[in-house]
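Quick one: structure for this chain?
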Amino acid sequence: MLVCFIKVIARHARRYGRAAKSMALALAYASAVLPAHAEPPAAAPAATNADVGAKAGAGTTAFTDEQKKAIGVIVKDYLLANPEVMIEVQTALEAKLEKEQSEKLRAFMAENAKAIYRDPQSPVAGDVNGDITVVEFFDYNCGYCKRGLTEVKKLIDGDKRVRFVFKELPILSKGSEEAAKAALAAKRQGKYWEFHQAMLSTKGQANEASALKIAQDLGLDIAKYKADIAGADVQAELDDDKALAKKMGINGTPHFLVGDRSIPGAPEDLHDQLQALVGDFRKADCKTC
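Got it. Here's what it folds into:
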C-alpha cells in the first residue's frame, strides 16, 4: 500500500515539482526503515463464504497500528526538518485551484456571452458598436478600481474600435451601493461615462452625498435622478450585475474580461495586458466579444 502511494506521488512529481519528489522520498524512507516485525501481516487462511460476503471489496491488507505510528513519526520528522515542502505543496494547490477556476470561468463566459458582453442595458464607453468588448466589474470605493481608471481611459482613447462595458459590483460598503445606483441613474440621462470618471476620481468615500454633488456638477435633472435611484429598474439592473458576478465566481474588484480571458485586479501593466488581449481577439475575429 505504501509503495503504491509512493508511485502515485512520483507520477505527479513533474506536475508538482520538488514538493512531490520530497514527499515520495520521505515515504520511501519510512518504508525502508520500518522494523522487520512491522511488515504487513501474512494473508489470512482461506475465507469461508460468510467471510467473503462480509469483506467483499477489501483488496489490500491494512497497516497495523504500530506500522501507522512508525510511518507517521518518520514523515512528521521529515516535514519538520524540511518545512519548505509544505510551502511548495500549498503553492501547487493554489495553482491547481486557480487553473480550475479559470477553466470554469471560461466555460461560463462562452455559454453566457450575451449577458456578459452584449446586454443592452449595460452602460458602455468607447464605440458602442465596437468589434471587441472589454468588461469591467468594479466598486466605486475600490482603490484598485480608482488606480485602474487611468489605464481604462488610455485604452478607450487609444483604440477607437473598442467597446467598454461596465458592470456594477458594490461589495465594499453601503456607500458603494449608493454610488452604483447613482451611476445607473446618471446613465438614464446619458451621463454614465462622465459620472463614472468623476466618481472614481473623487477623493474620500463614494456615497449618496458625493454622488449627488457630481450629479449636480454634471447638470443632471436632480428630481429625475433621485426618482431613478429609488426606482425598481435601477435596482433590477444592479441585482442582475451582482447575480452575474456571483455565477462567475467574481468576488473581488476590479475584474476585467475579454473574450474567454480575465484579468483580476489592476496590475501595473493593465493597459498593456488589455491592449494585447483586444489585439489577439481582434485577429481571431472573436464571436463572443
